[in-house]
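dumping this here so i dont lose it again. seq + smiles for zinc ion
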Amino acid sequence: MASRGFLDSRTLGETHHRLALNVFMVIVLAHWAEHIVQAVQIWGLGWQRPQARGVLGVPFPWLISSEWLHYGYALVMLAGLWLLRGGFTGTSRRFWMLAFGIQLWHHVEHLLLLIQAQTGRPLFGQAVPVSLLQLVVPRVELHLFYNTVVFVPMVIAVYLHLRPSAAEAAKMRCSCRPSMAPLPAPATL
Ligand SMILES: [Zn+2]
């Protein structure tokens, strides 16, 4: 029996969807928590912005100063959203793909930041690389916002995915699918 590769869409989207989803959500949550900690450092503790580097960025400042790393993470997140989409059905899939669409834009912003850092030519005559929406909102606030508006539809999608109606469950092919014992009729609210 030929075994399928890890990145085969049926591996991540079907047979190991639950496991892959759990691992991915932990990574995304940890990253988002770093943005929250950074916000608390600035607005709760009154730290100067250059010193407010979250938890890992305090002992490892290069983690936060490397545009390569920010871009790499944005790309990994985009890839994860794409690779895991196969398991989602119905409404949960729409929320998941909404998160993917927003992350696609967030990733473009990081690509622009990376290009500016590599060429040494910040856009719009700025002193440092800037995101497009940073012309309106400062970087810390903007990227906290970006990570939040990607995370929220992801959580909704996962919540709906793990609590499917009978009709949704019947369409699911992934490892999150409830046991196929006769399912109760969908609850009426
Ligand atoms: Zn699943």
